[in-house]
Design a protein that fits this description.
The protein has 6 helices and 4 strands. By secondary structure, the chain is α+β, with helices and mostly antiparallel strands.
Amino acid sequence: MSQSAGYFIVEASAMPEIFRKVAEAKRLLETGEETTVNGAARAVGISRSAFYKYKDAVRPFNDMLHGRIVTFQTMLRDEPGILSGLLNVFAGTGVNILTINQNIPTNGCAVVTITAETSALRRTLEEMLEAAASSPGVLRCEILAG
């Protein structure tokens, strides 16, 4: 490889513990549970220097997408009301839907691509994806771009 990627999405359980602890310390500071870096670092069991070393490089996935445009790809059963139910899930989370593109259904399923602006998101992106994926008639819901 001649160029290395600038960003990676890695499952939390697969990354070094220090990154998870830095993210937790940042959350403690943002929520006001801790008011100083020293207190937040001590609460999660890391040094202040480790916090400062990684604080700008570690961000939870939902924080990276908050306030951004995200494109979701879904696979829906071709039945009346399925898309409407999915859109209600989106509306209930506070995202602003920008575009909806539905392909012609084949084999009883349709691919629907939804682009939304997430600055008013009232849940985490993971919670929204889970709610969308568990909506009746939704076979798959994933982030395509964002």
